[in-house]
Recover the amino acids of this structure.
């Protein structure tokens, strides 16, 4: 049973995650909301200018370093240790915006951020970021971490791809989908054209 809750804002929300006893939701105009119970929501200052072109589209949580990471249609990465206070990390000579971020931990912690120009940035602490792939032919629309099988998963126009390290990617299905999610038992659910 689902209950509609009021966020207190009149803008689109794109992504949400839960960890460290707090929900974090992100959306258009650089908006970030937090809630401890999923019912009452508080607007937080993201450091991103409130413009229609500045959308925060993806948020994830790095449990090794207790860090939220959020990205969007701007050339910065946002981080927070508590979901309430955010730091904006800017990059020089970056001409793309970010589409998705995901966290994966097995033998080492790794955060991946994928961009429109087919670049991937990586960090093992959320502070220091490096180009993992530059100009790869792989297009990333969305990305999640599959901790059940210790890998990243990315759906796109070319099909569903997986990678154990963020560098080497294999197409495992030709299904075209926009978003995908999985539980900790290996069950995968994906949506197509935003409606399926």
């Amino acid at each position: 049973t689902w209950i509609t809750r009021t966020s207190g804002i009149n803008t689109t929300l794109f992504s949400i995650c839960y960890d460290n006893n707090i929900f974090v939701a992100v959306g258009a105009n650089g908006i970030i909301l937090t809630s401890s119970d999923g019912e009452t929501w508080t607007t937080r200052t993201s450091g991103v200018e409130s413009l229609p072109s500045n959308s925060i589209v993806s948020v994830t949580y790095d449990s090794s370093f207790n860090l939220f990471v959020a990205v969007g249609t701007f050339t910065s990465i946002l981080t927070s240790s508590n979901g309430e206070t955010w730091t904006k990390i800017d990059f020089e000579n970056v001409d793309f915006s970010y589409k998705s971020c995901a966290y994966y931990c097995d033998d080492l912690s790794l955060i991946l951020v994928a961009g429109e120009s087919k670049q991937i940035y990586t960090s093992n602490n959320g502070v220091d970021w490096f180009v993992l792939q530059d100009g790869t032919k792989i297009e990333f629309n969305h990305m999640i971490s599959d901790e059940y099988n210790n890998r990243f998963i990315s759906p796109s126009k070319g099909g569903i791809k997986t990678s154990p390290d963020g560098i080497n990617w294999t197409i495992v299905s030709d299904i075209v989908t926009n978003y995908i999610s999985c539980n900790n038992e290996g069950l995968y659910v994906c949506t197509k054209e935003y409606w399926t």
